[in-house]
Amino acid sequence: MTDTGADPVPQVERELGLLMRRARSASAAMSQQLHPDLESSAYLLLTYVGRQPGVRSSDLAAHIGVGRATISRQVHKLEELGLLRRRPDPQDARGQLLELTDEGAHVVTTTQDSRRRWLRSALTSWSTEDVTTLAASLAHLNETIEEAAAAARARCADD
C-alpha cells in the first residue's frame, strides 16, 4: 500500500466489520431456508462441495477455516438431512469423499438463485463495471487475506 495521505485502513476495517456482520446474518438466514436445524455455515459448506465434488473433509475444513471435529459434526448433520453423502476414497481406504445428494444439489441451486436475485436487486443502482470491479476487488482481498493467514499460521507453527 502506498502512502497517499490519510490512512484508509480504519475505514476498510469498519466497512469489513459491517459487511461481515451482515454476511453472518444473511448466511444464517440462508441456512434456515435450507433447513431449520442447520448452522449458519451450512450454505457455504454445501456450495463448496457442489463446486468441488469429491472433496475430502480435511480439505473442506481448511477451506472454510474450521477444525476437523467441527467439519465432521457439520458433515454428519448434512448427511442425516439427506443433503450430503460420503463415499470411499479409492486412493485412500481411510479417507472419504463428499458430494451433494440430488436433494442437496436442488436445495443449493434454489437457495443460490434466491440469493443472486437478492444481490442483483440490491445492486441495481450500480453499473456493470462497478459490480465487476467489486467482484475483482473482493477476490483480491480474499486472496491476500488468505496469504496473510497462511503466513501467520506458518509463524505460529515455527514457534
Core attributes:
mainly alpha, 159 residues, 2 domains, single chain, Arc Repressor Mutant, subunit A
Total discrete domains:
2
Q: Report helical residue fraction.
A: 55-70%
Using only C-alpha atoms, the radius of gyration works out to 18 Å
Q: What's the average pLDDT?
A: 88
User: What is the tally of beta strands?
Assistant: 3
Q: What would you say the CATH architecture of the largest domain is? A: Orthogonal Bundle
> In CATH terms, what is the fold-level topology of the largest domain?
Arc Repressor Mutant, subunit A
Number of helices: 6
The CATH C-level name of the largest domain is Mainly Alpha
Termini separation comes to 28 Å
> How would you characterize the largest beta sheet?
3 strands, antiparallel
Q: Beta-sheet strand percentage? A: 5-15%
Sequence of strands across the biggest β-sheet: 1-3-2
Q: What structural class do helix, strand and pairing data support?
A: mainly alpha
Task: Name the shape in a single word.
Answer: globular
Let me know the CATH homologous superfamily of the largest domain.
Winged helix-like DNA-binding domain superfamily/Winged helix DNA-binding domain
Domain HTH marR-type: 13-143
Pfam families: MarR_2
GO biological process, one term: response to stress
InterPro entries: HTH_MarR-typ, MarR/SlyA-like, WH-like_DNA-bd_sf, WH_DNA-bd_sf
Task: Itemize the secondary structure elements and their pairings.
Blueprint (H helix, E strand, L loop, with lengths): L8 H26 L7 H10 L3 E2 H8 L3 H13 L3 E6 L2 E9 L1 H21 L5 H31 L1
Antiparallel strand pairs: 1-3, 2-3
